[in-house]
Each structure stands twice: as C-alpha cells, then as structure tokens.
C-alpha cells in the first residue's frame, strides 16, 4: 500500500510540475509576444513620425529653392525670428534683434547669409536705414520683420526703396503694425511673401499690439 501511495504522490507531483511549467511557458510566450508587438508598434510610430524640414517648415522645398520661416515680434516683449536654410539668422536668443525693422540679407545664388541689422523706427533716424538699403546688390534676398514699432520714422523714400524689393504692404505700414516680408533686390514682380496685421485696439491680441505674424515658404534660387 505504501508503495502505491508513493507512486500516486510522485505522479501528482509530476503532473502538477508539468501543468505549472506549461502555464509559465505560455505566459512567457505571451510576454515575449507583447514585447515584440510593442517593438513593432514603436517602429511603426517612428516610421510614421512626420519628417522635419529645414527651419521647421511644413513641407520640403523643391530643388533650387531656399527654405525660410520668419515671425514678427510679439508686442515689445519677444523679438522677431528669421530662419533661412535651417540657419537662424536673427532671434532674441541670438541677441541680434531690436525695436523697429529687422533686416537679414542672403545671397540669392548660394543661400548664404550676408548681413543682419535692425533699425529703430520709433526713437531712431530713418537716414541710416535708407543708406543701408540703397547699395544692396541685385540678386540679394531681403527679409524684414517688425518689432514693437516699425513705422513711425519711415518716410516716403524708405517706403519706396522697400516697395522696389517687392513689397506691397509697406505703403500702408503704420504705428505698431506687425509685418514680415521677403523680397529681393532687382525683383521684377511683387513678392508673394508678405504678411501684415494692422494695429487695431478692437482686434489686438496684446494691449496696444496685434498678434504675431508668421510666414514660411520656398525662395527660388537666383539663376544666372
């Protein structure tokens, strides 16, 4: 009888061990399956993550075009930002922006930055701005963005020089308007790259200033 009991006990133990091992293997397989599924899901998420384009614009530019993105200043607190070909030319972080009209010059053939400057159109003088605009070479890309106030000291001569770069809004730019513009010296048509928001106390986002204007696009490379 004792031997029979021992056989039964051993049989039960082996059966229990077998069942437990099967359950754990199944669970292990399930966990491995879960891990593989997660890996596949992560890979799928990575592959569907939208690609980043130059300057953070929404779509890639075609060949022989330069990507750009720019924003006007926010009230008198945050300065404007100008980016061309993934190169931030002007920004508050770079500490090279200021009240008035901020200007960046870019080589129209290579996309290389040439110069950046800002001109105070509230407390400054328009004469240095005019003298800066006159000698710009043909084929130069000119990007402009206002900060705080970009219009008070503008005169007819300055507005005419900017209009010759392709601007249509410069004639109407007023006190504390927000404006961004991308044109070129020697351009034969009006530039499609311009945004302008009037300072209007009924619609202003900030007290005394309209909302920020932003703009992005692809500038055609100058051909010989």
UniProtKB/TrEMBL annotation:
Signal peptide: none
The ILEI/PANDER domain, residue ranges: 99-186
Keywords: Disulfide bond, Lectin, Secreted, Signal
Pfam short name (any one): ILEI
GO MF annotation list: carbohydrate binding
Classification via InterPro entries: FAM3, ILEI/PANDER_dom, ILEI_FAM3C
Localization (cell): Secreted
Gene Ontology cellular-component terms listed: extracellular region
Cited CDD domains: ILEI_FAM3C
PANTHER family per record: UNCHARACTERIZED FAM3 (PTHR14592)
Protein family: Belongs to the FAM3 family.
UniProt name for this protein: FAM3C protein
Species of the source: Nyctibius bracteatus (Rufous potoo)
């Amino acid at each position: 009888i004792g031997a029979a009991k021992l056989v039964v006990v051993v049989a039960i133990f082996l059966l229990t061990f077998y069942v437990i091992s099967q359950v754990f293997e199944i669970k292990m397989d399930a966990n491995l399956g879960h891990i593989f599924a997660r890996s596949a899901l992560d890979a799928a998420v990575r592959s569907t993550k939208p690609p980043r384009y130059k300057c953070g614009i929404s779509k890639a530019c075609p060949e022989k075009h330069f990507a750009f993105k720019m924003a006007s200043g926010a009230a008198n607190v945050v300065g404007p930002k100008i980016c061309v070909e993934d190169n931030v030319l002007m920004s508050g972080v770079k500490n090279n922006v200021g009240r008035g009209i901020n200007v960046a010059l870019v080589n129209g053939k290579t996309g290389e930055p040439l110069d950046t400057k800002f001109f105070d159109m509230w407390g400054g003088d328009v004469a240095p701005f005019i003298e800066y605009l006159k000698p710009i070479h043909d084929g130069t890309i000119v990007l402009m963005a206002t900060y705080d106030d970009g219009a008070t000291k503008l005169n007819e001569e300055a507005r005419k020089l900017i209009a010759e770069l392709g601007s249509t809004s410069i004639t109407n730019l007023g006190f504390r308007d927000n404006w961004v513009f991308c044109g070129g010296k020697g351009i034969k048509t009006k530039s499609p790259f311009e945004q302008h928001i009037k300072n209007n106390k009924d619609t202003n986002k900030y007290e005394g200033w309209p909302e920020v204007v932003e703009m992005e696009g692809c500038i055609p490379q100058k051909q010989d």
